[in-house]
Amino acid sequence: MTPDQSCLVYTPEALADALVAALRPKRKADESRWLEPCVGQGALLSALARSGIPSQQITGVDLAGTPEPTDTLACVRRGVDFLAWSKRTALRFDRVVANPPYLGIRELAGSLLKNALTTTVPIDGTLVPHRANCWYAFLCASISLLREGGHLAFILPAAWEYADYAAPMREGIASLFRTVKTYRSVHPLFSGVQEGSVVLVAEGYGAKEHGPIQRAEYKRADFMLRAIKTGASRRAEPVISAPSFVTKKETKPLSQIVTIRIGAVTGDGSYFLMNEERRKELGLPTDAFVPILSRACHLEAAEVTHDHWKRLRDAGDRVWLFRPPERLLKDRAVRSYLKLPKEDGGCDRTALQVRRREPTWFRVKLPQRPDGFVTGMGRFGPWIALNRDPDLTATNTLYAIRFNERLTVAEQSAWALMLFTEKVQQQMERVLRRYPDGLVKVEPGDFGRLVLPVPKKSVGALGVYREVIECVVASDTAKAIKLANRFA
Predict the structure, then answer these.
(1) What pLDDT is attached to residue 185?
(2) Which pLDDT score is estimated for 488?
(3) CATH second-level architecture of 254-322+363-487?
(4) What does residue 343 show for φ and ψ, rounded to 5 degrees?
(5) How far is it, in rounded angstroms, from Cα 46 to Cα 32?
């Protein structure tokens, strides 16, 4: 079994040089042993060569059996599962530098799966869980191969900062090294990758004295690379872990806070949903329609207002749901549209959901006035877009949220904010289904089982929530979590 190309993200030359520079010994005659556990096409081996590291001091391992030209720059073992090799080798290293594979462990099979699941987490001696990603197993195995005083530099996904399976390492790695620094890029560092990345640099393995992780965040890649090379950043600040919840009284399942229902089921979307241009073409009055949201991409902010809906309408989106009231059934245009044959664009009256509404098949059932909307599937994890338009509803591509108690907008915002606290995001990682195209999906039942901390206040919640969702839409989940933690 060879690695799936979708899980391989090749390292840009500038980033490879920065990682090597971060670990480069200051002494010219240094004899440090280097390890590259996932060689790939050899970008990091090339960086090591440019830095003057002799090939005999470098060991490389890769699952792919096909040789690469850069293999001459190190002692490279091809066709070898690094996680299996790490358990049997007697070699130990002074430096480890890597851009590990980003592939869910549950997607592995056979010996690859077995070796991943028998990799030990050096913090607490537990095993890497099935829900984890390969990068986590590679990080754990690499630490176990370090000599005392050794250093490590890894390129990691943004999930390092919030994935629940990585929590033991994220919260305990500072106890293993003298210093630990993370450099977070807001924007993607790789082509074809939507999220930013994290560069983890840990120095002084096994030191008796250690401090908190120092974290720095960058919008410009050149500033970040310069900081990695020098090991210094004016942006760095100590990481403060989110407080754990003390008792169950301080938490509530989301299902006790809101009722989650799917949006309106039309049975024939091509007939019932239309854009403004189509409505005018048919001469149908606006009173024959209900304003709706019909796509995940329609949720793009913390709130949905009538102005937001109008922008979608003017952009040509399908935001009208045909649902004529009794008083308009005699309107000429409405009557003509109701009688339109299926082959000419009329309704498919044989569709199950349409037949269930007979004789008033055109009266699509609507969810009780939603307080908010949630996308079941999209590019981002689910959040509640608060509904500020009393006439607006949604189709079944979205979930309709209604708070179980009457709450102010500030109180609703405070609860919605709690979804982005670190502990809840750790739970979220367990219930989300991730697809190869980058989309994520959550089922209503799984969403409702999330356990939220009870907000301690609501004053100022709306403003913070707006900022949090701006971060989420910009693919900066780490900053969103940080803001929510501060509010909580």
Answers:
(1) 87
(2) 78
(3) Alpha-Beta Complex (3.90)
(4) -65, -15
(5) 17
Give just the sign of the alpha carbon dihedral 308, 313, 314, 316. Answer: positive
Own/partner long-range contacts of 303-307 (Cβ < 8 Å, ≥24 apart): 303/385, 303/386, 303/387, 303/388, 303/466, 304/373, 304/385, 304/386, 304/387, 304/388, 304/389, 304/392, 305/388, 305/389, 306/388, 306/389, 306/391, 306/392
Can you tell me the distance from the alpha carbon of 224 to that of 216, in angstroms, rounded to the nearest whole number? 9
Q: Judge whether 177 and 130 are in contact, CB under 8 Å.
A: no
By residue count, the chain amounts to: 488
Q: CA angle at residue 54 from 70 to 147, to 5 degrees?
A: 105
- For the chain, the structural domain boundaries read 5-238, 254-322+363-487
pLDDT score of 327? 94
Q: At what angle do helices 477-487 and 461-473 cross, to 10 degrees?
A: 170
pLDDT given for residue 237 in this prediction: 75
Residues in the chain, pLDDT under 50? 1-7, 192-194, 240-249
Backbone angles phi, psi at 193, to 5 degrees: -110, 130
* Alpha-carbon gap, residue 23 to 228, rounded angstroms: 10
11 to each of 6, 47, 67, 268, 409, how far by Cα in Å? 14, 10, 18, 47, 45
Stated pTM of the model:
0.52
Does 3.40.50.970 match the CATH number of domain 5-238? no
Angle among Cα 8, 442, 312 to the nearest 5 degrees reads 95
The whole-number pLDDT of residue 5 equals: 46
Summarised one tens digit per residue, pLDDT across range 314-351 is: 999 999 999 999 999 999 999 999 999 999 999 999 99
